[in-house]
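Hi,

I'm pasting everything inline rather than attaching a file, because the server keeps stripping attachments. The sequence lines come first, and each chain or strand is labelled.
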Amino acid sequence: MPFKRPRPNPTQGGPNSESSSSRPLPAKQTKTSTAKGLPDMKIYIVQAKLDAESIATLTGLAERHSGVCRNAEDAEVLITAVSMRRRLERHVPWEIAKTKAVVTPQWLRDSIEHGGPLPCDDYVAIGDLHETTVQHCPDCNCKPCGCSDDSPSPTPPTSPRPRTAELSSSPTSLSAASVPEPAERAVYVPENLLPPDPPIPTKLETLDYTSRYACQRPAPLVCVNQSLVRELDTIRHSRWLEGEDRSALSYERAASVIKAYPHKIRSLAQVVKLPFIGTKIGGLIEQYLNTGTILEAETIKGSERFQTLSLFASIYGIGPSTARRLYDLNLRTLEDLEIYYGVERDDVGRQSQIVEVEEKPQHPRWMRGQRAADDGLGDSWIRVALGLREDLAKRIPRAEVEEMGRVVITELNDLKPGCVSTIVGGYRRGKRESNDVDIVFTHPDASKVKGLCKSLVRRLHERGMVTHVMHLSSFHTHDPLRLHHWDNLEKALTVFILPPTSPFYDGTRRRLDLIFASPEVYWTAVIGWTGSIMFQRDIRQWAKDKLGMKFDSSGITRRYDSKEFYPKTEKEVFELFGLQWVDPTWRNADL
DNA sequence: CGGCATACG
DNA sequence: CGTA
DNA sequence: GCCG
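And the predicted assembly:
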């Protein structure tokens, strides 16, 4: 049945999602046009009137054979299925379109087949743009006739274009190819809710890798001392599983500092000066320098207890404490757990029976520790998690994260046009594969956000895309007694599956978190949910230590008088805190 | 020796 | 306690 | 486990 081949998807680091601003890692900008059938052009695909499958296919073709970009004005070639001028103008400013080759999707396919850019004459998408399209066609025959009036061939100076919420006006991927395109009249979105354009550069030289705060230390996805970091992380993980949280925190901090250290470590002297490297951890690093490993980490990795606790705690809803309890009951394998929790092997939770899962309430203090009454019972909900474990353990390639974002945003825009969103989490930090997908949403009109989370979840649920709702909740303002303030943060933790019509569909269920913020706290929510955890922790620590402020995902308040602050952009949060800008791809303070 | 991010269910 |  |  679900034997649609999962797209191999060789080239990644592709187009950044709609309004997210993660970039490819700063290090390399390989220009290898090898293996690409076309020269490296910047192609922008206008999503209107294309279904999800076509978008994915075209994007894939462009990525593999040439290059894509996320802004129309940065592109050389616009590809669109739209044929009417008025329609195109809703997605690309006319003045911009006039400076590009605007062609049909067939041009891309044929050019790839042909092995080079074809003349655009036969592929003009919009009649009124025939002249300019031929002029700007990347096939270099007609270039010499450069009697162009405008055409600054390098990207035009980009006047602040009116930006509208045109995030993926593609139809739902459920409806096949035809396009009704409902709800027109683009909603105007204030500039500050959209990602900065151009993106803000990270001034690495003004940051400080010796800082005691992770939010001042630029940390790449993978560092030059990565294997040492992994050793320390093994010990951290073990401490955490064993309930030694403070010790775990120390290892986490040490690893985080090493992660940001930009040189290969060759001597102990290099690291003992770094913060959070004390006697014990310094000794372990010395050992690592001498032998290439840390004995304790190797021992841990080999131990049955560690392996088992790790396995148990990898199940959603099972933490260190429960994992240890199960281990003490002499359970060791998943099969043991399935028996213990009463799962019938042979695909159970399979098939799309929609399940609503409620968080299990905690036992009262007075009856915990008396392992009795409820040993194999109760947690009907762990059974569900067990059934999901295999799927949720799979990582999600960037391209699929983007597809999920597209699908969800399309549904949302149907529901409430004008929403703005950012895909956050590890994806935004540049990870090539994610464990889950987190999306933060808002709407320029604050009054339209309330209840949206629940509505969207209901809609996705009705359409079979959300199979489980692990959690649905709201946050509120800092007002101890919130009077006229409605909640300004709503959150849903769900399990999601792409519709079978999606080219990425392979039946794997994925964790999807949806976060709705009021526009005033949109960027603080985005910062919070972008992480990494250590980065987030230290930004809060910094706010407290240096500014006397409290920072959480739903806002910033001054501690002594509870005055609230509402930075209008992500950059303004950094400025408010007196911090240098750190791009999301440099916030990888965790392993 | 106290603090280590913070909030919700 | 477990999750973000 | 490390810091002030």
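Chain A has 20 helices and 14 strands.

If the labels don't parse on your end, tell me and I'll reformat.
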